[in-house]
Every structure is written in C-alpha cells, then in structure tokens.
Amino acid sequence: MAKYLARIFLRINFKKLFIHYERPVPDNTAVIYTANHPTAFLDPVILGAFTKRPTHFIVRGDIFKGKLVLAALRGLKMLPIFRFRDGYANLKNNQATMETVYNKLAEKKCVLVLAEGETKHEKRLRPIQKGTARMAFGTWESYGDLDIQIIPVGVNYTDADQIRSQVMVEFGAPIHLSDYRETHQENPRKAIKQLTDRIQKEMRALIIHIEDSEDEPWVNRFLDIERNQLHQANYPMVSKDNTLWKLEYYTVEKINARSKEERLALKDQVTAYDATLAKYNVVDEGIEEAKANGLWRILLLIVGFLPFLVGFIFNYLPFAFAENLAKQKVKKIEFYASVRFGAGMFGYVIYFLILLIIALFVGNPWVIGFILLVPFFGYIAMRYLELFQAWKAGRAFQSLGEKQQLEIIAEREALLKAV
To answer: Which of 260, 182, 255, 294 has the alpha carbon at shortest distance from 415?
Structure first.
C-alpha cells in the first residue's frame, strides 16, 4: 500500500520522473542496489516506489527511536545501520542488521545501499564506502558462493529542494560478484577494495557530477537555461526516456573538462545573461513559452479558472502545512524536500479521510461524490498554476520590443553555443 501511495504523491511532487534501466533487473537473483544520496529520504522512496521487485533499505540507525517508529520503519522494509557518531553501544547492533541482510540476499531478495554513507545536497558523487563490498562478500562467507549482482544507480535531480522539479534515475549494468571470486579467495581485503573502486567508477558514469563545488551555482543555472529550450511532454509523468539525463550529463562533463579560466568566462556569460533578463524584467522560460502562447491558452485559463479555484481552496491546507513544517523544523537543506514530501503525503491522506468521514456523516450522495473528486480538482489547480505561470512568462517576453527580444535571444544562443 505504501509503495502505491508513494507513486501517486511522487507524481505530484515532481513534474516528471525519468526511470531508465540499462538492462532489466533479473527476477530470481540476489541484487544489491548502490545509489548516491543527495537527499535524506526521497532517494530511497523513489527507488522503492519504482523498482519492480520489493526492496529492503539500509538507512541511518539514529532514526529508529520509539516502538511506533521502529515498527513503522521495519514495516517499510528499512534496516538500521549505526555510525561511530551514534555511540559504541549502538554499533554492536550493526551485526544483527548484517545478519538480516545476508539472509535476505541468500533468499534472492533486493537490498538498497546508499553507498556514500551520508547525505549531501550537491550534484557530485562522493567517495563510496566499503560497506557494500563487505556486505556482498559477507553473504558469501555466511551462505556460500551465491549469484549476487550489484546494480549501480545514479539519482539526479534538476533541483532537489524544489517541488515540481524533475528527477532522472539511471540504473546501470550489473556488476557480478563472481568476477571477484578468485581475488576474494586469495586476498579478501584486495577484493573489497577492487569491488569498491569498481562501484565508484560505475556510479560516477551515472551521476551528473560537477567537479568543482564553486562552479555548482552557475552550472545549475546554465542547465536550467539549456533545459528550458527543450519541448518536453507533460505525459507520461513517469518515463523510461533518458534524453534529458544524457544532455545534462554530457554538458557537465564538457564543462568539467574546461580550464579554470574558461569556466570563469562561462560563469561571466551566465551572469551577464541573467543581468540582461533582469534589466528587461523577464525570465528565460518566457522565450520558449512566448512561442506556445496563443488563443488556446487564454481559453484554457478562462475555462479552467473555476475548477482551479475549487481545487485550490479544498487542497491548500495540507500542502501549506507541509511547506510550513519543513520551513520551521528543518535546519539542513538535505532534509527539506524529504520532510515536505512526507508531511504532505501523510497530511493529505489524513485530511482527505477527515473530509470523507464528514461527507459520509452528512450522507448526501452529491457531497460524497464531490469529496471523492477533491484530489482530482487539486491536480487541476496545480496544473492550472503552472499553465498560468508559463503564459505570464511568455506574455512578458512578448511585450518587449523586437530589438529587445532579438538582443536576449542572441545572447542566449551565444551562451548555449559556448559549451
């Protein structure tokens, strides 16, 4: 149930989800997914929701506090792993978790490891920890020479902390543990290091990785501009296509390959272009949206206003609650989107059930029917706001004189060609 609920709310949280597999995941083989970890809980939620096979998750042990929380997390197939900072007494509990993992892999189940060992809000792969390799070889030592495949995963967000952004998940080709059989028999430590290095290399090829952290703000802005020129279909909301990932991956690789001086020059171009936009009080999205503006958009905005108003009024409360909770309680950006998503999902379910109970108490079929349609109206309201913002951006650009429009377009094209 939780998996299907997460799928619904992920489609609301993200404008588009791209889930691409290099090869199909085998049905009857032990699998260890190794993923990067740019957000606190969204990464495992996305992977758990959109992997075909049930998956067990290795997560931070310090969140396993209280009987209710413990029962809920275990019900969601989450297994605790403790760190040195969690205290020596807790570290002893890791052995029980490892025994559980070995058992799950021996039963040909799937396990997800967030291989960097900690969460960091950045577009960059950090050093992979040796825990995944130790886990795989530990299963061999406990249950014999099993067929275990390690599948590297890259989770790439356009803007991880922003609602209605996009996420691109790349599942790579499997690494067969059997490739390291002889090395492990001769020298287990060497095998662990070789496998960890291999995982690092394979994951690096799946992650949009900005090499220099100082470049990240302006490179992200460049990617926004590049993305705005694409004509992406809104549906399906979950796509197997990885065209956007390829575009952004290779763009960033080309930027990484530039010298420091060349990157600074690109940064200056981005800054200058944004200054031009600010001078004319327009946004980059408006250039493409102006091409799409027409009578049909105005008609949609007129016809859709009443459904938007109904959807906005009856769906505002749970989403405002989630946003405010995240702003007030979250201190680290890595947890912001996760808390907002979790509070929004569970808050909305409770809110909808309360509305439904009230409607059932009233007993009027029309009231019950309307309440059942409240989520649908909420989705219409969200799409209406996006359409209005697109129309507004396009209208602002259209209102400029031809000379100003051509100046902006020329500067934009020069910037995009510079990479």
So the answer is: 255
301 and 205 share one domain: no
Q: Is residue 240 part of a domain?
A: no
Would strands 165-171 and 148-157 be described as parallel, antiparallel, or unpaired? antiparallel
Q: What's the CATH number where 48 sits?
A: 3.40.1130.10
Identify the domain containing residue 61 by its residue range: 2-214
N- to C-terminal Cα separation, the chain: 46
Residue type at position 28:
N
Identify whether the C-beta of residue 209 lies closer than 8 Å to the C-beta of residue 220. no
The alpha carbon dihedral of 375, 336, 16, 289 has a sign of: positive
Residue pLDDT, tens place only, 76-87: 677 877 766 665
CA distance 364 to 377: 20
Instruction: Give residue-wise pLDDT tens across range 45-75.
Output: 999 999 989 999 887 656 556 565 556 566 6
Structure tokens at 318: 């749970």
CA dist., res. 336 & res. 329, Å (int): 9
Among 155, 190, 214, residue at a domain's last position: 214
Summarize the confidence of residues 320-329 as an average pLDDT. Answer: 95
β-strands 175-176, 148-157 pairing: antiparallel
**pLDDT confidence bin for 135, thresholds 50/70/90:** very high
In a domain, 56, yes or no: yes
Report the C-alpha gap between 190 and 193 in whole angstroms.
Answer: 5
Bond preceding residue 54 cis, omega within 30 of 0:
no
DSSP 125: P
198 assigned to some structural domain:
yes
Q: Which helix (H) or strand (E) holds 382?
A: helix 374-398
